[in-house]
Amino acid sequence: MRFLKGRRSRFESAASIILFMLDLRIQQHFIDSADLQYQAAETLAKPLDAGVQALMACVTSGGKVLVCGEGSAAALAQYFASLFVGGFERERPELAAIALRHEGLGDSAYASLARQVRALGQAGDVLLLLTSTGEEEGLMRALHAAHERDMTVIALTGKGGGSVAKALRETDVHVGIPHDRAARIREVHQLALHCLCDGVDAQLMGDQDTVA
Question: What number of other Cβ atoms are within 10 A of residue 170's Cβ?
């Protein structure tokens, strides 16, 4: 019996240590995310301001926003489109936004976003592109298709922006998250999308103090 009690005690002690370490790991996620957002706030303010102005020029001229990403970024694209159409924190008239779908296999999959941009986009529209690495072939093709249609591109990237950042024009907007970890980049991407939506609402309906 003493042997069993000893084993149980050691097991409970090990389990407690594991739970404690997991608690610290979880807390570190919050700390790292908060640190990045705080450090990036000043750096990203100007490009996000430029992004708001590009969106405003689009919607006030009757244009629309096409949004795209691959993998988890596709979910963020859908999220932004729903906020832009349905409203962010205030009731307002609907604004036109479409989340593009990444479809097909092989080369067809790479070309699908570009085909949608060419089919739906026109001069004066905006392509909002989300990527952590800036190296996805499908997004690069979509970017080039947007330029063919004389659209403005707003690119939310990370890890320096990769090939996407290099392909942007002077009239485009680059919101580059200064981090290499995908989870942190996606977290700031979501915050950046909120800033874009809030900025458009403030421009359209007045600067209501909703930031807390």
Answer: 4
> What's the number of CA atoms in the CB half-sphere (13 Å) around residue 28?
6
3-state DSSP assignment of residue 168: coil
Torsion angle defined by CA atoms of residues 148, 152, 157 and 163, in that order, rounded to the nearest 10 degrees: 30
- Answer yes or no: are the C-beta atoms of 100 and 76 closer than 8 Å: no
Measure the CA–CA gap between 99 and 101, rounded to whole angstroms. Answer: 7
Tell me, what DSSP letter sits at residue 99? Answer: E
Q: Are the C-beta atoms of 140 and 165 separated by less than 8 Å?
A: no
- State the amino acid at position 140 in one-letter form: M
Nearest alpha carbon to residue 73 among 164, 157, 163: 157
Token code pair at residue 44 = 């990203």
The CB-based long-range contact list for 92-96 (8 Å cut-off, 24+ gap) reads 92/201, 92/204, 92/205, 95/59, 95/65, 95/200, 96/59, 96/63, 96/64, 96/65
**Average pLDDT for 12-18:** 65
Q: Residue 4 pLDDT more than 70?
A: no
Banded model confidence at residue 17, pLDDT cuts 50, 70, 90: low
CB 164 within 8 A of CB 157: yes
pTM as predicted: 0.88
